[in-house]
Amino acid sequence: MKFNERSLGVVLTGLAAQSLAQCPDYTGYSQQPQGDPSSGPLGLPFMRPAPACRTFNSSAVEKVINDMKSLLKDPDVARMFENTFPNTLDTTVRYYSQEQNLAFIITGDITAQWLRDTANQFAHYGSLLGGDPELAKLVKAVINNEARYVSQYPYCGSFQPPPESGLAPSHNDWADGVTVNPPVNNQTVFECKYELDSLCGFLKLSRIYYQNTKDASFMNDNWRMAIDQIFRVINEQSQPTFDEDFNFISFYNWTGGGGSLSPLVNNLGNGEPKAFTGLVGTHHRPSDDLSTFAFLTSANAMLSIELTNLADMLDKTQQLTNVSQQAKQWSTKIHNAIWETTVVNNIFAYETNGFGGRYVMDDANVPSLLSLPYLGFLDKQHPAYIATRKILLSAKNPYFAAGKKFRGVGGPHVDPWHPWPMSQISAIFGTDDDQEILTSLYLIVNNTAGLGLIHESQSIYDDKDYTRSWFAWANSFFAEMVLDLADRKPHLVLTQNKSYRPSF
Ligand SMILES: *[C@@H]1O[C@H](CO)[C@@H](O)[C@H](O)[C@H]1NC(C)=O
Ligand SMILES: *[C@@H]1O[C@H](CO)[C@@H](O)[C@H](O)[C@H]1NC(C)=O
Ligand SMILES: *[C@@H]1O[C@H](CO)[C@@H](O)[C@H](O)[C@H]1NC(C)=O
Ligand SMILES: *[C@@H]1O[C@H](CO)[C@@H](O)[C@H](O)[C@H]1NC(C)=O
Ligand SMILES: *[C@@H]1O[C@H](CO)[C@@H](O)[C@H](O)[C@H]1NC(C)=O
Ligand SMILES: *[C@@H]1O[C@H](CO)[C@@H](O)[C@H](O)[C@H]1NC(C)=O
């Protein structure tokens, strides 16, 4: 461990940490209504932390909030936007040093950096990066920190603070008693469940940064090493369980001891066997739950898209032609395998195993099947999406549930009767139907337990029964969706039928 105590970044962090110590913990803060209620029927409270307690300030973010507050017609939606849009910057930047080009971003109530969450925590700031160079530098520092993680531990999805931060690693009760191969160091790794979409998250954040800044300086040695490791995982995890001579192939396995979130993984920590299809296997889902079958359709869809984006980015900057070639080949192979092996009668399976096993369901966590249009995999009018969506948003999906006030898709992460607001956000991205959009929007806005923030899940039986008061990814995703509607469907949410896009 090596860090320079005299570096400006560390000194600033020390000062910020001192003043932040007087700030209330946002987990508790977000469980009680705080500021004045909005003037709409729901009277939703203002939930941003006091300015001195915010973890990063961005003038571009404040401008978009002011623009949207003056344009949105429903004061309750405006209040939700005002609370959620800045939530990542207000509450989750635990460490940032421009000099070290490192930033540590927590998920909210869990003090660790998840590759998936961070990509989505920052996705809605993409169009602001050109107008706010300081925000762009922060995102670049996030990418560099993640490049170090991925180059070292490509199978892991969640990480500890970088040593330069001087922050202590957090203990993860859920990792107690877990044996993972290849082995990991718990000073760097918070949890090492192998989730394919975590690597896609890293690619997505890199792509968002590049698209909006045209700055290729993030492609440093760390980043190139991380990209090589991503291809290593793709090559390893697309292989079948047995080779032709029935040698058992295992590059990664995760065995649970007695830990509370460690259901024993069958086949000595390898999960269910898989055949070769061209898809890339995963071990756990984007929800961190164990996969039933290894080939998760939506994670492969995201991978196919982000590999095309990676190739595009490399070609435009004339870098790593060998990687660009591989990225294109894999993207096509995965795309074809999705259409050939996961769709039957226009219905996508959530998971398959290559032996004919299919699990038709959806889980709320993005990448989900409902979010395929959001991911950029297909058009929302595609007949296979329309037919699949109809099943996913009905009792035919094992993890769909409906009550008097709230309904949607959940998953085994909480339980079957707690659908997630995130699923209704994905549903909005997947339709052009005005009525469906408004219904989903108000299912979300009406069901925040009066707190004006997006929760992980909401019981269909009890308004007050929700999980995770502080979940930055879900807040960002909601704000991204409202911003998308302001552009795509202004007449639904704005006072005037005129598209709004942030401009600087
Ligand atoms: C953000 O701005 C407020 C003043 O408006 C200041 O008190 C706070 O320290 C700033 N936060 C950071 C991380 O610079
Ligand atoms: C890392 O693992 C060791 C050995 O199991 C344990 O004693 C320690 O508490 C762990 N550290 C963290 C931060 O979890
Ligand atoms: C677990 O994975 C390691 C590689 O990380 C491999 O060497 C070992 O054979 C695997 N063990 C089992 C039981 O699958
Ligand atoms: C691409 O080529 C570079 C330089 O020859 C090499 O270091 C790297 O491992 C290659 N990457 C891949 C994914 O093949
Ligand atoms: C949201 O709540 C309002 C006011 O109670 C109600 O009129 C509306 O039908 C609700 N919308 C949905 C989709 O539940
Ligand atoms: C909103 O404007 C678009 C064109 O900009 C038009 O096609 C649409 O019909 C308008 N909708 C309403 C409700 O006025």
UniProtKB/TrEMBL annotation:
<dbReference type="InterPro" id="IPR008928">
    <property type="entry name" value="6-hairpin_glycosidase_sf"/>
</dbReference>
<protein>
    <submittedName>
        <fullName>Glycoside hydrolase family 125 protein</fullName>
    </submittedName>
</protein>
<dbReference type="Pfam" id="PF06824">
    <property type="entry name" value="Glyco_hydro_125"/>
</dbReference>
<dbReference type="GO" id="GO:0005975">
    <property type="term" value="P:carbohydrate metabolic process"/>
</dbReference>
<feature type="signal peptide">
    <location>
        <begin position="1"/>
        <end position="21"/>
    </location>
</feature>
<keyword id="KW-0732">Signal</keyword>
<dbReference type="GO" id="GO:0016787">
    <property type="term" value="F:hydrolase activity"/>
</dbReference>
<dbReference type="InterPro" id="IPR012341">
    <property type="entry name" value="6hp_glycosidase-like_sf"/>
</dbReference>
<keyword id="KW-0378">Hydrolase</keyword>
<dbReference type="InterPro" id="IPR008313">
    <property type="entry name" value="GH125"/>
</dbReference>
